[in-house]
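Chapter summary example.
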Amino acid sequence: MNDSDRDISGSSEDLVPPTGSASPEVAPGTTDDDRFECRACGYVYDPNKGDPKNRIIAGTPFTVLPMTWKCPTCGAKKGAFTNVGTTASYGFKENQRYGLGVNTMSPGQKSLLIYGGLGVAIIIFISLYTLN
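The structure predicted for these 132 residues follows.
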């Protein structure tokens, strides 16, 4: 049976918590809310959403997924995932303390900072034409 034959439209009662051995290699500082990104395809496992395709219920931390769990997009093994932090943080967790606080900003906040700064610079430049 291939992936297109699977019925993933079942209700939330059909989803089950994972069984089997969890990953023994948990990095220090990893929390249950941390998201993990597949280095092969970019899929992000969010514990708040779970993995309906593999029948993993919402609220299941990545660290308790069985070692046999694979990426639902590309089939990469669990070891191919990297911790990218919680849903409130952006970018890789180890880079959060760098960048003068910019690495903790959301993409929308970064865009506002960049385009807002450009807008202020243009207004100042145009106002220079009013000088005699």
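To summarize the output: The first strand starts at residue 35 and ends at 38.
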